[in-house]
Specification:
The complex is a heterodimer of chains A (402) and B (459).
Chain A (H helix, E strand, L loop, with lengths): L2 H15 L18 E8 L4 H4 E2 L6 H4 L9 E2 L5 E2 L7 H5 L3 E8 L8 H10 L13 H7 L9 E4 L14 E3 L9 H10 L4 H19 L1 H13 L11 H14 L4 E7 L7 H23 L6 E7 L19 E6 L8 E2 L20 E2 H13 L3 H8 L14
Parallel strand pairs in A: 1-8, 1-9, 5-11, 5-12, 6-7, 6-8
Antiparallel strand pairs in A: 2-4, 3-4, 5-10, 9-10
Chain B lengths: L4 H7 L14 H9 L3 H5 L12 H14 L5 H32 L3 H13 L13 H9 L7 H9 L2 H6 L23 H10 L9 H11 L2 E4 L3 E4 L9 E3 L2 E3 L6 H12 L2 H15 L6 H13 L4 H10 L14 H12 L3 H6 L2 H14 L17 H4 L2 H13 L1 H4 L6 H9 L5 H9 L3 H10 L1 H4 L2
Antiparallel strand pairs in B: 1-2, 3-4
Helix pairs in contact in B: 4-5, 5-16, 5-18, 7-8, 8-12, 10-11, 13-14, 14-15, 18-20, 20-24, 22-23, 22-24, 23-24
Classes of the chains: A alpha/beta (402), B mainly alpha (459).
Chain lengths: 402, 459
């Protein structure tokens, strides 16, 4: 059965049972662009200086007596890649994985995860003026009217502010299931009639669950594609993050153009080498699963991995790092120009650091996000600077998009 | 707005029950709360200090196995270690049963809610697999006895608990000039200090600066925990000299836990702490955008009576906003499941006799789908309050599926949906829910529709 017929059929059933709109009427136009954008929020503040190690900076070894082991292999003569990220080396060599260094949101000084994540996902300079109404990915959808909810998916159990807002977007977790009889479904609509939050969430749940069961073949297709990919041998099977990436890939091969989810566990105050190993495993698995599952669509895909802020330049007293400011954005995908570390390196000398402790951000990370959106989707510069990232100056094009 | 027994049971308690009458007045609610913790005595959960297996039990079992390696005693030592681990798993499941039983059978629902509220405020996640059964004992020891007393006592108990110390890396922290750090590259870890100010006391908008985080981190040095000693003070790790936190100086003499506790008590009585706690309570119990006068009144009472929490609850329940019609909050997944079990009248014996697979299949896994993995929130800020976080498509898929499928496995015979709608929602349920309960084609669908309804899921 065709998905559209299903949605229309569902609407008819709902209306016959109660005088209420079963499904919010949505335009059935697919997104007017073909590129795929995946935004991964790395919660906990990834230490960019550890992942993309500036070994060419003479101050690094002194700041990080245990974290800087010298085992990271070279990327470009100045930066080296943390050994746990080596599974991405083939992508680097193919020009499909890269990093932007010494960036951050405009958030400064308080170094709270929660504020930092809110600012990152809201895409705003600060949290004054009740700015948490929506996220920048959602505002991007708002400027392209008439999109159906499947164009954008927030995946996983967590709320994703980055994709929340007035534009329709879907949310789903791969471990959710739903079976309900047609009669109960109609009556459920009756009991939720006066509560839009429950009504819409239940409608979406039923629609998505049935759509997914109708598209079980899509999941099989993903598995078959992944089985064929040589790099998938290195991926740990069965993790939640892998399921999320598989689900994202299956949606992105269909009508979905934007997917967002998060990978937690980057708050490495102590024994950072362990934490980094786990985080790297989850992130590299995710990227490799996306590549394998997307097949030829990988060439049109941009994966942006963002974190709320960086960590202290100096390691702390327990072989970890504390909350800092500047950090790195990692990116992957065939639509982007990888094989490079972009950004002005501020240096790690005592006087180079921000507030005497953190990597100094040399550019607003939002400028890179904006340029990627401009390159992938062709959004207008004024729209990006005013509606999507209010108060941002785009500045020169870093040339991330191929 | 007048007191309403149905609102009292649902908004400030664990919900309605076919066998337990709802409170009949605010005085009734507060009187029960001020009295003994009856349900905790009837359905005990061990305190952290008394729990078996303790971190020390694990440690001794591991040590025993290491020593026995290569000898005749190896197999027995291995067997013993497995058994300790297994006992921990079993105890975790017992805690789930105990917490469910307390919620479903208490006469003092407000205490259950307050305990969960403060446990969430002071979220401490297990940092190792072998700690997973220790969250409930942590709550039983540091939180529950203090929910009606002084907030500062709770704060001191939490900061002294190994659960919090390990969770926020405090055991790794030492003063840069302490005896222990001398000559090495070990030193301060700000994690606990930051979360105390940002989450537990003043709140992220509070009047503190990075320097206060740093000074509090120095003041906390020496606070540590080990498997052998539990939470304890290590003078060798303490930073010498006094620390100035929020403009007040603490310590300066021989380092001691008394200086740390004095600092915590000082921060607990800061006006921003009073406002932060008051606001959180109102947001949790009443409305996402709290009445500013109510928050201010609660904060004022807190500061006037030396930070005794009971005073804030009195002010909250005396306010008309507490009894407004129109439920602005939704039940979090545990409360949804527990209030369903309560409304269905599942007996204590049946909850306790439930199989391990049932606890996993009917409580733990569904909670995860609904977005609330048992005792494992993502960060130290605990579970989100916003209704949009819970009533998502996948969250609703979990709630609907639970409502339709689990009650039939909990009871031999489900209640008649036409009556159950009044048991679960009180004397004046929405007409649409009454209609649906009557129109369902099976009893289990009828009961399920009542439980899945917005009317039951809201409070």
């Amino acid at each position: 059965m065709d998905r559209r017929n299903f949605l229309i059929g569902g609407a008819a059933l709902g209306c016959s049972a109660a005088a209420s709109p079963f499904v919010t009427p949505v335009a059935m136009a697919a997104a007017p662009w073909d590129a795929r954008l995946v935004v991964i929020i790395l919660r906990g503040a990834m230490d960019g200086v550890d992942v993309i190690q500036p070994y060419g900076d003479p101050a690094l070894a002194g700041l990080r007596p245990t974290l800087f082991t010298g085992k990271a292999a070279d990327l470009d003569g100045f930066y080296a890649l943390h050994p746990s990220f080596e599974p991405l080396r083939p992508l680097w060599n193919a020009g499909e994985f890269g990093a932007v260094h010494a960036v951050s949101t405009p958030y400064r000084d308080k170094r709270s995860h929660f504020d930092g994540q809110d600012i990152l996902e809201a895409g705003l300079p600060d949290l004054s003026g009740g700015g948490l109404r929506d996220g920048w990915l959602n505002r991007m959808l708002q400027v392209v009217p008439g999109l159906e909810p499947e164009v954008a998916f927030a995946i996983g159990r967590e709320q994703m502010l980055v994709l929340s807002g007035d534009a329709p977007a879907s949310r789903w977790s791969p471990d959710a299931r739903l079976t309900i009889s047609p009669n109960a479904r109609a009556l459920l609509n009756v009991v939720h009639h006066d509560d839009p939050l429950f009504r819409d969430a239940s409608d979406d749940a039923i629609a998505i669950a049935e759509q997914i069961s109708l598209e079980a073949d899509l999941a099989e297709e993903t598995e078959a594609m992944m089985a064929e990919s040589p790099m998938m041998e290195a991926v740990s099977r069965g993790g939640e993050h892998v399921k999320i990436a598989e689900f994202a890939a299956s949606r992105l091969r269909a009508d979905t153009r934007i997917a967002s989810f998060s990978i937690n566990g980057w708050d490495t105050h102590a024994r950072q080498s362990n934490g980094m190993k786990n985080g790297a495993r989850a992130l590299t698995d995710t990227i490799l699963t996306l590549k394998a599952g997307l097949g030829s669509a990988w060439d049109k895909t941009a994966v942006l991995c963002l974190t709320e802020f960086g960590r202290t330049a100096r390691e702390n007293g327990s072989s970890g790092t504390d909350h800092g400011t500047g950090g790195a954005m990692l990116y992957a995908g065939g639509a982007l120009r990888g094989g490079q570390v972009i950004g002005d390196w501020p240096g790690l000398g005592e006087s180079d650091l921000y507030a005497g402790r953190d990597l100094l951000p040399t550019r607003d990370v939002r400028a890179y996000l904006a340029w990627v959106m401009r390159g992938l989707i062709g959004l207008d510069q004024a729209v990006l600077e005013q509606a999507i990232f209010p108060g941002l100056e785009l500045g020169p094009n870093p040339g991330l998009v191929r | 707005m007048p007191f309403d027994p149905t609102i009292a049971a649902i908004r400030f308690g664990m919900g309605l029950s076919p066998t337990i009458a709802p409170p009949n007045s605010v005085a009734d609610m507060l009187g029960i709360l001020a009295g003994p913790d009856t349900i905790a005595a009837e359905v005990p959960i061990p305190t952290y200090t008394d729990v078996y297996p303790s971190p020390l039990d694990y440690r001794q079992a591991t040590r025993g196995l290491r020593q026995a390696q290569g000898t005749d005693a190896e197999e027995a030592a291995d067997q013993h270690r497995r058994q300790v681990r297994e006992d921990g798993h079993e105890l975790l499941l017992t805690h789930v049963r105990s917490e469910m039983t307390r919620a479903a059978h208490t006469q003092d629902g407000f205490r259950e809610r307050l305990t969960r509220f403060w446990a969430d405020h002071f979220t401490a996640r297990p940092t190792k697999g072998i700690d997973r059964h220790l969250v409930s004992p942590y709550i039983e020891e540091a939180i529950r006895p203090n929910v009606t007393g002084r907030f500062s006592d709770m704060l001191v108990a939490v900061v002294g608990s190994p659960m919090m110390i390990w969770f926020l890396d405090q055991h790794q922290s030492m003063g840069p000039n302490s005896q222990a750090a001398r000559g090495g590259n070990r030193g301060l870890n700000e994690n606990l200090a930051r979360e105390i100010l940002e989450l537990h006391t003043l709140g992220v908008g509070g009047a503190y600066q990075q320097i206060d985080v740093r000074e509090l981190a120095k003041l906390l040095t020496g606070v540590s925990a080990s498997a052998d000693q539990g939470g304890y003070f290590r003078p060798s790790h303490a930073e010498p000299g006094a620390e100035r936190v929020l403009g007040i100086e603490y310590g300066g003499g021989e380092p001691s836990i008394e200086d740390v506790n004095a600092g915590l008590r000082g921060i607990a009585m800061h006006p921003d702490t009073a406002r932060h706690l008051a606001r959180k309570l109102v947001v949790h119990f009443i409305a996402p955008t709290p009445d500013a006068d109510l928050v201010e009144a609660m904060a004022t009472r807190y500061l006037e009576n030396g930070g005794i929490l009971m005073g804030m609850y009195e002010v909250m329940l005396a306010h008309e906003a507490a009894w407004a019609i129109g439920a602005l909050k939704v039940k979090q997944p545990f409360d949804f499941i527990a209030s369903s079990v309560r409304a269905l009248g599942v007996s204590r014996e049946d909850i306790f006799a439930s199989e391990r697979s049932f606890i996993r299949g009917a409580v733990q896994r569904p909670m995860t789908v609904m977005g609330q993995t048992w005792q494992r929130p993502v960060g130290p800020d605990g579970w989100p309050e916003e209704e949009e976080n819970w009533i998502t498509p996948q969250g609703m898929a979990g709630r609907i599926t639970w409502s339709m499928q689990v009650p039939g496995r909990l009871l031999d015979r489900l209640p008649d949906p036409r009556e159950f709608v009044f048991t679960a929602l009180g004397p004046t349920p929405p007409e649409a829910v009454v209609f649906a309960a009557n129109a369902a084609e099976t009893v289990s669908d009828g009961v399920g529709l009542v439980l899945a309804s917005a009317a039951f899921q809201r409070r």
